[in-house]
Input
Amino acid sequence: MEAIFYLSAWGAGLSTILAVFSLYDRTRSRPIVRASAEIVSRSVEADGQFVTAKVKMGPYGDEQLREFYIEFKAMNYGSKPISLQHIYIETAKNLSYLTPDGLPIVLEGQTSALFKAQKEHFDSISLKTKEREKNEILSIGFVDGLDRRYPVPLRQLQAILEESMTLPTTIALYSRKEAPDDLVIAFQTVAPVVIKPRSEQVFSFKQKILSRLPKNVR
Output
């Protein structure tokens, strides 16, 4: 009886281990996307696409002219590729889809990719006070070919919004000559953007040719 008990326990333990490995294998055999984002800066001598500001750099506090932008990173920890179409920015009223350089893309398993977006997408101005205010963005991240979202952690989003308030912006209030009191918030965009009301649940783009990311890109 004691031998039978040990054999039964060993069999149950082995079954549990096999089930865990099977679950792990099924999990790894699909795309596993993690998104992140942060504000970064670089020398304005690059291409001058983004907003610039003089900042003190180095041990002697020398002033340098640098440009600031949001760097998005998509990481596919799985073993299967996934088609990422756009970067999304969701507010209480609108859902914006950005398509910066590099998107759409087929992100292979065990690889990552970086994308740049203007910080002005995260800035805001009060129409009442005409002063800058913190933008009330609910969520940001990537959207795949089936409109599934891969959000950036909320703490990173809040850090971006707070830091962006301390940096210069090109966002401003504009009006038409025939309606000077009808103000709108605007800026010149670098990448294509489509803005949809959140009430419109269905959102689709024309099919585009995707670029494939080399497997050696990390």
Summary: Residues 36 and 137 are 15 Å apart (CA to CA).
